[in-house]
Amino acid sequence: MSAHPHPPDQLTDPGRPAPTPGDRREVVASAEDLTKVYGSGRTEVRAVSGVSLSLHRGSFTAVMGQSGSGKSTLMHCLAGLDRITSGRVFLGGHELSRLNDKQLTLVRRDKVGFVFQSFNLLPTLTAQQNIELPLDLAGRRVDPDHFRSVVDALGLGDRLRHRPSELSGGQQQRVAIARALLTRPDVLFADEPTGALDSATGEEVLAHLRHSADELDQTVVMVTHDAQAASWADRVLLMADGHLVDDLDSPSREQLLELLNPATGTTPRRRGPAGQGRPAVDEGATA
Ligand SMILES: Nc1ncnc2c1ncn2[C@@H]1O[C@H](COP(=O)(O)OP(=O)(O)OP(=O)(O)O)[C@@H](O)[C@H]1O
Fold it and tell me: Would you say 164 and 130 are in contact if contact means Cβ atoms under 8 Å apart?
């Protein structure tokens, strides 16, 4: 289990020395006591409850847990897609709850990349046009060197003129990842990115996500149900009932399967000493 200091103020405290670009100690996003409640009264659901964490530059984090445990909600709150009920979320130097809708839209556009299970490519555009679309829409210039490094990192150099229907599922997902990376997001959020792919193709996509973290210093957060997929990450967060119940450093697939097994593992129930219901990790000390 990781037990790093929790430095969310690094994002806001002008007294701290600024980390240099590419510094892997740099915290690019964090949450403090993040709680998200849907509904009220009898229909109230605490989808995420008191989660604190920090994400460092170049880290590859997987979020796992049973269906309904709060994985997607946590990701949406970290990405500014969902407003939180209480606590604080920092992304790209901003505290998200202090932003109005327009500012939040800009932060999402400039600081966050998304990859979904269903690729979401435009069928009439070539791979290159799809990759460049977010920058085109934002009226921003494409940096040719960065474009080349992203395309090369994802092995798409000879597929740029193809339309999505002329690409395999794995290639389409790699185009979606390239599209997300081209804007140089602080965090790339991937929601079940291999869910629609066969296992060999999924492994290929995961290798490219890993490569993006290692070689491009890209911070990646991936929600997945698949222990094999999560074993590509260098950190795995386990959610149960809206709580962060474990924080694992480069776990193996076997270790994850054991933990996720309701008969032997920490989920679906929150783990705590003598059943006191306390979370297994010090949520304020995770990083
Ligand atoms: N918009 C919403 N309105 C009301 N309840 C919601 C909403 N979104 C999620 N929930 C509830 O919040 C809880 C957490 O949902 P969430 O989708 O984050 O879980 P998950 O772990 O991502 O699940 P899955 O693996 O099935 O995608 C669930 O009980 C869900 O029903």
Answer: yes
CA distance linking residue 260 with residue 65, whole number of Å? 7
- Taking the centre of ligand 1 as the mean of its atom positions, its distance from the CA of residue 269, in whole angstroms, is 16
CA of 183 relative to ligand 1 center, distance in Å: 29
CA 26 – CA 169 distance, rounded (Å): 34
What lies within 8 Å, CB to CB, of 77 at 6+ separation is 31, 34, 36, 48, 83, 84, 89
Q: Tell whether ligand 1 has an atom less than 6 A from the beta carbon of residue 65.
A: yes
Model pTM greater than 0.95?
A: no
Tens of each residue's pLDDT in the chain, 287 residues: 333 333 333 344 344 444 455 566 799 999 999 999 999 999 999 999 999 999 999 999 999 999 999 999 999 999 999 999 999 999 988 999 999 999 999 999 889 999 988 899 999 999 999 999 999 998 999 999 999 989 988 899 999 999 999 999 999 999 999 999 999 999 999 999 998 888 888 898 899 899 999 988 999 999 999 999 999 999 999 999 999 999 999 999 999 998 888 776 655 444 443 333 333 333 333 33
Ligand 1 within 6 A of CB of 68? yes
Cβ of residue 267 lying under 6 Å from some atom of ligand 1: no
Domains of the chain in start order, with CATH, are 8-15+24-285 (3.40.50.300)
Does ligand 1 come within 6 angstroms of the Cβ of 165? no
156 vs 240: CA distance, rounded Å? 38
